Amino acid sequence: MTWNTCELRIEGMDCADCALHVQEQISSLPGVDQAKVLLAAEKGIVTFDPNLTSLDDIKAAVAAIGYRARAMDEAQPAAAPTSARLFSIIRLAFVGVIGLLALLEIVAERLGLLEPVVDLVPAPVALAAVLIGGYPIFKSALLGLRARSINVDLLMAIGIVAAASIGEYVSAALLVLFILIAHFLESFTTDKARAAIRELVALTPKQARVLRQGREIEIRAEALNPGDIVIVRPGENIPADGQVIDGHSSVNQAPITGESIPAEKGPGDEVFAATLNELGSLRVKVTRVGANTTLGKIIRLVEEAEGAKAPVQRFADRFTAYFLPVVITAAVLTYLISGNIVFTIAVLVVACPCAVALATPLAVVASVGSAARRGLLIKGGLYLEALARVDTVLMDKTGTLTLGKPQVTDVVATTDDRTAADLLRLAGGLERYSEHPLAGAILSETERRRISLPQPQEFVVVPGQGVTAHLEGQAILLGNRKLMAAHGVSLPSTLEERAIALEHEGKTVVFLAQGDVVLGLLAVADVIRPEVPAAIAALKGLGIRHLLLLTGDNERTAAAVAAQLGVDYQADLLPQEKIAVVQQLQAAGRKVAMIGDGINDAPALTQADVGIAMGVAGTDVALEAADVALMRDDWSQIPEAILVGRRAFRTIKQNISFGVVFNIVGISLAAVGILAPVMAAAAESLPDVAVFLNSSRLLRAPKHRQ
Ligand code: ADP
Ligand code: MG
């Protein structure tokens, strides 16, 4: 069986409850394997069997419950939405005028200024307002009923009809007015939350100047292909990800990395779509376009962030699921006990599950969206909540704590007949195809000394130990003591003493052996990133007491580095042992964040509650593997991520509690007649506004408390 996966634009969803309904509706179609509906992104991602259902079936099913779905590339129907919007504005204005008059009347009546004889709003006019204004509410209630689901509009419709049926036309008109206002506020709120995503999408480059048959032509950026050569003039945005082949310039990468200091770019350097070329002209060979660019991936991950639900949201989901039946029961009970239809109406119209349903997605989208603009990508509410709860931070050493650009400092040969250059030649040959930071150090040293390297055969990487290969017919090993021991290589005591001394200086020592005979050692020193000490202090300031360095490097080197930073350490760990350390801490009840480069450490990052990968811009594997991806190599983003998580989680809890308390208090007051229906309807939009105002604070960066 073949599955099709398609993305649909879904319009008309104002509330998380709506998204849930649409998702259930699509999932109920035969042949649909999976449906994920994202409120903030206004998107549905559906996997279906094309033999059993079609895109048109899905669209029809969505339309049947009152929303609009269209394929992503399908043009937006031009006339309909504008006229629909105009119509809804006219409707709101009309009902608004009637409502105002009615309010005036009520106030005047209270003050005794006007004899009730003079009805400012005659009954037929009020009834007309109810019918015209209430049309969308009635329609949505009926569509819901047809799909056998109870929605909020059904409660409202019952309330309005009940009020009208006891002759309270003016009250019914006022109910309609306030419900329309609440709807309007909800759509406004959801729309504002989408701003964070829209701003990212707006960064997508539009135009590109490409070389075709030797001529420069302007095309739309999305029409570029990998392999194209584009020309980027000063002041222009780079239209796609690529590699500079000609020219020098400084490029402002803030849209991707959040880093405002421009980066110097020249031939061979990687550049990203949407970054700004400031000074010189660049020729760039395109490697990735559109959705495959780093920016495209960031947008997709932010859009899908609301899919990774925080545990706290499960409470909200359960609340919304049981809410409507509970309200109906409360209304029936109110009627049975008090016999008062007005009280019953008030119970029906005060109910507002949307605030609770909106509580998490709004806060998540606002936090994730604004963090993404600062180069900090958090992949959903699940990780915001985990970040908020983190009490233990584990960090990898090589390439993470250190610059990952180590340099060879010492080369020691065991016998006089081999020179340092001989050792470097063999070591360089072994490391030619290795991606380890140590390999980088050795290769740049051989390059500096212009040593030409032999070609390795049967090249093998032993994670956490080193590399082996055949060079010119000889078996050669390069790595730590574990690797030497595994191949029966013994280390003479003079060499071992030398190694220990170097390690006490914080240097990493690797041994070179041919067969089972050691030829010497290479010492490599790596510099700790300059911003690390401040970031560690900030983490301690945030109350994170357990900071632990995990490394495959040896005890002495690890101790030297850990002492410099004031953190604990565990050394001599193989990659699978790093996972075991994470598991042990988790079993002891710790919430663990692990920071690594996302490539060597991917398994430990996955095991941790939050896996944070550094400097992932342009590295797809790390971007996909991490729960939190830092676009640049900057440790100050780690305390910031924790702050973002804590703030979001706090806001979500506030939002949910406010929504729940409002409903309990509101329904209780309505049931005993303290809250009149019109007041109840007016109060209904209060929690939406509160949730919105509370969540929009998250659009700003947190203030560092360092
Ligand atoms: P860390 O945990 O500090 O990031 P790794 O687990 O990547 O370190 O590697 C641990 C040790 O294994 C290194 O210190 C080095 O001794 C050895 N090693 C790993 N890969 C290589 C390599 N490509 N060349 C030489 N030695 C290596
Ligand atoms: Mg590493």
Description:
The protein has 706 residues and is α+β, with helices and mostly antiparallel strands. It folds into 6 domains: 68 residues, Alpha-Beta Plaits; 104 residues; 87 residues, Calcium-transporting ATPase, cytoplasmic transduction domain A (Distorted Sandwich); 159 residues, no CATH class; 127 residues, Rossmann fold; 119 residues, Calcium-transporting ATPase, cytoplasmic domain N. It contains 26 helices and 26 strands. The strands form 6 sheets. A 7-stranded mixed β-sheet has the order 14-26-25-24-15-22-23, with helices on both faces. The two termini are 56 Å apart. The site of adenosine-5'-diphosphate has 21 residues, from helix 14, helix 16, strand 18, strand 19 and strand 20.
Strand order, largest beta sheet = 14-26-25-24-15-22-23
Domain unit count: 6
- The oligomeric state is single chain
Tell me, what's the shape? elongated
Q: Main β-sheet, in a few words?
A: 7 strands, mixed
Return Rg in Å. 32 Å
Secondary-structure class: alpha+beta
Each distinct ligand: adenosine-5'-diphosphate, magnesium ion
Low-pLDDT windows of residues: 114-118
Q: Please estimate the helix content.
A: 40-55%
Residue fraction in strands = 15-25%
- How much is the average pLDDT? 87
State the end-to-end distance.
56 Å
